[in-house]
User: What shape does this take?
Amino acid sequence: MLLDLIILIVKVAIVLGVLLLHVAYAVYFERKILGHIQARLGPTEVGPLGLFQPFADLIKLFFKEDNIPYGADKVLFTIAPVIVVTCVMTSFSVIPYAAGWVLANINVGLLLVLAMGSLGIYGIIIAGWSSNSKYAFLGSLRSSAQIISYEIPMGVALLAVLIMSGSLNLSDIVYAQEKLPWGMFIFPQIIGFFVFLVCAFAETNRTPFDLPEAETELVAGYLTEYSGFRWGLFFLAEYSAMYVMSSMLTICFLGGWTLPPFLTSLLPFLNLVPGIVWFLLKVYFFMFFYIWVRGTVPRYRFDQLLKIGWKFLLPLSLTNLFIIMIIKKVFLP
Assistant: This one.
């Protein structure tokens, strides 16, 4: 019993350590890629090619003055970023990186990730309300409306994945794709994949759906009154959420750590590559896509954002669900 507890603690420490390192260099690569998109260099000064810039930023944030606005609710203002980070970190416990590489292989992993995404919004609402700032409050209201609008089509898209796999366990969803001749759910569910991809941008408040932080009209939205380490926690949560959404896209639509059987039969040497390598390659492709969209696509207006969610993505997700029900009943009984 004690040995199992120690092993679990070690696993959690490894996952959190790798995650923090990932977040640090996700920010670095975003600044580099955006720099090249905008015909500039990005970080270059701290370390070779600016590789130590994330650590310099971390040290700066850690020692920066931590201000609490006058009239703010100090308790809620303090715990809001902790709530957001805790919800995102909890999602990592059920994500399988390869066969057997998962902290908690529970039967409701898909449901847990959706639930943690929904609970995280409470931290943003609390941050906006407790800041005693109109900009922060408006940003948190936008975020809550955005999550409500996009979680419904996202959930319907994942319901189609559940119908195809017959399980809420994320590892079982990967194994279900492995049994298919084409090896991935994206081929019969290209519409569901598109819906989930767009909703992933809205869930993480990323461009073109970064309305809760819209600098042009809300200064920094719900982040306006935050500084120092607490401000850094919100960004830790945002980039961790990007990784969670990229992992969910990989697991639910691209076969996770597996490759399509027809591809491995044509190129047998691909079986020699560890599954976690394929998983990370797929995840980092979506991470790059997040950054590329930020550098190329303008922000939507708020009315456009809501219209896309309710009038476009919701009907699309229901259409995808109907198609998948027919495919499952007729072609894959």
